[in-house]
Amino acid sequence: xxxxxxxxxxxxxxxxxxxxxxxxxSKIVDTNDEWIVQRTGIKERRIADVExxxxxxxxxxxSRDAIKNAGLTPDDIDMIIFSVTLPDYLFPNTAGQLQxxxxxxxxxxxxxxxxxxxxxxxxxxxxxxxxxxxxxxNVLVVGTEMTSSFNNWEDRASCILFGxxxxxxxxxxxxxxxxxxxxxxxLSCDGTKSQSLILKKGGAKSPISHEVLDKKEQFxxxxxxxxxxxxxxxxxxxxxxxxxxxxxxxxxxDWFIPHQANLRIIETTAKLLDYPMExxxxxxxxxxxxxxASIPAALHEAFVDGRVKRGQTLLFAAFGAGLTSGAVLxxx
Length: 332
Description:
Elements: E1 6-14, E2 18-21, H1 22-26, H2 33-40, E3 44-47, H3 55-69, E4 79-83, H4 94-102, E5 109-113, H5 119-132, E6 138-146, H6 156-159, E7 164-173, E8 181-189, E9 197-198, H7 210-214, E10 221-222, H8 224-245, E11 255-258, H9 263-272, H10 284-287, H11 294-304, E12 313-320, E13 324-331
Parallel strand pairs: 4-5, 4-6, 11-12
Antiparallel strand pairs: 1-7, 2-3, 6-7, 8-13, 9-10, 12-13
């Protein structure tokens, strides 16, 4: 079987227009700007409008940019892989909602995945495999999250961390011979720690009820220490593994683009990798933790402003509920 190479041909992002600063947060929960910045590096986040900026709505804006930047039309897309933690509806899938919004008429395959903050990384490996084997030629991989919909705005330990947004990429068969490709990727999950970051109520196991709502159990709960320790350990290990098995030194990596969970996790992961912070893409201060949208949105932002350039070697790493994790090494 002939194996093809795949490359990222287009990127796009969208963040809601409503900005919620730390000062705004201090008006609804017992916190302040200094406390938040010191612990997370976050200064503000975006909050979606439920009428127009729900997951598939935000994804439409990001995806149109990505498709246009790839030099394609919507009907050139063979498959949509949509990473989302809390979708538009429990069913049908949000990828299908996005297909309709984009005006795609070719009835392309549509699939939602839920690997939390690692979802876009999971989607990228799936898309790469489908392109390599010749199944598809152009796959739209989207990470879109409306975390404000499951945020407990009375819990200052968690509500300060999250924001809404979308990041989209088009992964295409590389027929240019330019050396750009998905070099390698790695995915994992430690289900034994799944309770450390979880939305316990609202699923089939425990449907929404008056009792759940009265106790406010429909929101996310997190053991921050467990998440932090596993995030930095797992992301740094995956990155080191990819570099070692591909005989690439950290000096050859032009940019490290990690999941934008909080600044302390990013800095600690870079330190464990002995990788300089001046070569790490960081925008968590502006958008907070947008879950699976964070890496593709940061990639697009850095490409547009000229930091990331074609032909550079990039390293992505993510970590999320599950506990899922993963890393991807690419020639952009």
